[in-house]
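Progress against Task 2.4 (sequence-to-structure conversion) is shown through the following example record, which the project officer requested during the mid-term review.
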Amino acid sequence: MGKLYLVPTPIGNLEDMTIRAIRILKEVDLILAEDTRTSGKLLHHFEIGTPMKSHHMHNEHNMVDYLIGRLKNGENIALISDAGTPGISDPGFLLTRACVEHDIEVDCLPGATAFVPALVNSGLPNDKFVFEGFLPVKKGRQTRLKFLAEESRTIIFYESPHKLLKTLANFVEYFGEDRPVSVSRELTKLYEETVRGTAEEVLKHFTEKPPKGEIVIVVGGQK
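Structure tokens generated for the chain above:
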């Protein structure tokens, strides 16, 4: 039996790539990449010549049996996403579950994940928290927001820049204008920024200064 490695990759700063991650990516027989063009630049930077195959949300269902077969034949496979830890709002769960069902060893390396630094530097309670990822775009969005309005733990969301204002406006509507919010964008990159305040204050800030880059929103729980 081979082994599946889930390998985190930097969310911005290439210095966050671990020595172990580089070694594993050099040693495995195959690297599954969410976008081979994006990952190709990373592999080239670290002089990693391992073959790659595309593995993303549109083909992961169809690839599971094929990959399980290769793992059963003794090949070691690494799974990476464009940035961060595979399986966290990125492909990874389906293949991991299949490996567990087939008694194939899975090894998840520690490493970069966007929501952890965003949570820690938010100044909001981090002893208990809920990771929501991306909110539903349309169907179920209102229902989810109403449910989360009563959540007492800190809540973490991922969001794209062009939807941030809508989401912050939703927070004002469903959570209240005084609910504490922290928005971190471009984490580990040159223009990293964290904006903290009430939902209304943070909405006003980004209305006046349109956001760019990858975004993590941390919201204080209901008191």
